[in-house]
Write a structure and sequence with these properties.
Blueprint lengths: L1 E3 L2 E5 L12 E4 L8 H14 L1 E4 L7 H11 L22 E2 L6 E8 L3 E2 L2 E2 L2 E2 L14 H5 L2 E2 L18 E8 L6 E4 L7 E4 L4 E5 H6 L3 H9 L1 E4 L3 H4 L4 E2 L6 E2 L6 H4 L9 E3 L1 E3 L6 E3 L6 E6 L8 E3 L2 H12 L9 E2 L7 E5 L3 E5 L9 E6 L18
Family: Belongs to the TfdA dioxygenase family.
Keywords: Dioxygenase, Iron, Metal-binding, Oxidoreductase
GO molecular function, one term: dioxygenase activity
């Protein structure tokens, strides 16, 4: 447990059988009135604990939420005026809170007579399983069977750098019996969850699962993402676990249309935490179009362009952590603000039947001032 002036950071408690090793709650903070020293301490708490739940922010002004996420990355130049399609392919359907920069309204159901300027707004089917290769039946879903929606980290993967942190405030939470998340991949794995929570796994914990030989490989290797990557996979289908895609459906380069080669992103496979020095295997596998594999600085990389081989390599690593005991269901309540390290975690929403009630969430992120750094730089030749 740690404290900064009048506020306290407490690691989340694990139940028997839990193996996730990150997460903390913060009490005693008013994010509407945050001092500079508090901001520095909060930033370090997120880098250290990966995901932090700031309790009791029922009165948080959305403008203050935008100020917060920008001050957490004080060198960002993101003014919150870029179109949503620069974030990723799903966020084009989100609504920005008027006057609050890039604070977006997510949710489900009726949002109220006046939700921060949105009058009598109903969000219909924001979450659904339509892009899974074999979604649960309507009857199964209504009975409480659900899936992880889409495992990812927040990044456009083209143009702007990934946000350092994401801030998600729970304005209104659904309620009802626990749901059953099923993997539906032949493993038989399931886990229980209350409705309306966000799930996380740690890419740092994943890296620690690798053998010394695998660490040597990923430390020196990197990936290249497709131009307009979310448009590239728009017609693909997700695996039922929500992690990765299956089969074909990728657009050709001609179908993608014009793009700026300088905006195409090459990132190391391993991202280093700037505070702790921890390493994370942080690869958005669905959007990768090339792997560059090598085991040392002097070695010429083996370039992999076969999509099936790319997916097999990345999922062969990530599936190790995709087990119930390594997944944190962040226990956020109405009024809480969840802040997470976008360079060290994957996350996903989980759908629920409409009978559980409306959900209202305010989500904010920025273009990162500095992109991810790996343990070994990508050679300038590439």
């Amino acid at each position: 447990m740690g404290s900064f002036a009048s506020w306290t950071v407490s690691p989340l408690e694990r139940k028997p059988g839990d193996k996730w090793n990150f997460g903390a709650s913060v009490t005693g903070l008013d994010l509407n009135n945050l001092a500079t020293d508090d901001m520095d301490g909060l930033r370090n708490a997120v880098w250290q604990h990966k995901v932090v739940i700031v309790k009791g922010q029922h009165k948080l002004d959305p403008k203050k939420q935008w100020d917060l996420v920008r001050q957490l990355d004080p060198e960002t130049t993101d003014e919150g005026t870029s179109p949503n399609d620069r974030r990723n392919g799903l966020l084009t359907r989100a609504r920005c809170i008027p006057g609050a920069g890039n604070v977006r309204l997510f949710g489900k159901g009726f949002q109220g007579e006046d939700h921060y300027g949105y009058k009598n707004l109903t969000i219909e089917r924001w979450l659904n399983h339509d892009w899974h290769v074999s979604p649960p039946s309507r009857e199964a879903f209504e009975s409480g069977i659900t899936r992880f929606q889409r495992w990812h980290f927040d990044a456009p993967l083209y143009g702007d750098e990934p946000t350092w942190f994401t801030c998600l405030r729970t304005v209104r939470q659904p309620s009802g019996p626990d749901l059953t998340v099923e993997w539906a991949d032949g493993s038989g794995l399931t886990m229980k969850t209350p409705p309306g929570l966000t799930a996380f796994f740690s890419s740092v914990q994943l890296y620690d699962m690798l053998s010394s030989e695998e660490k040597e490989l990923v430390d020196h290797s990197w990936v290249e993402y497709a131009p307009h990557p979310f448009k590239w996979i728009a017609q693909c289908k997700s695996r039922n676990t929500g992690l990765g895609i299956t089969g074909g459906g990728h657009l050709t380069e001609e179908e993608l249309g014009e793009y700026d080669p300088a905006a195409v992103k090459k990132y190391p496979m391993v991202w280093v935490n700037p505070l702790t020095g921890e390493k994370a295997f942080q690869v958005h596998g669905a959007c990768v179009r090339k792997l560059y594999l090598r085991k040392s600085k002097g070695e010429q990389p083996r370039i992999v362009e076969n999509i099936s081989e790319i997916h097999d390599f990345i999922l062969g690593i990530q599936h190790r952590v995709l087990k119930p005991e390594y997944i944190l269901l962040a226990p956020a309540e109405e009024g809480d603000l969840v802040i997470w390290d976008n360079y060290g975690l994957f996350h996903t929403a989980i759908d629920y039947p409409e009978k559980y009630g409306p959900r209202s969430m305010h989500k904010a992120d920025t273009g990162g001032s500095v992109g991810p750094k790996g343990p070994v730089p990508i050679p300038s030749l590439y």
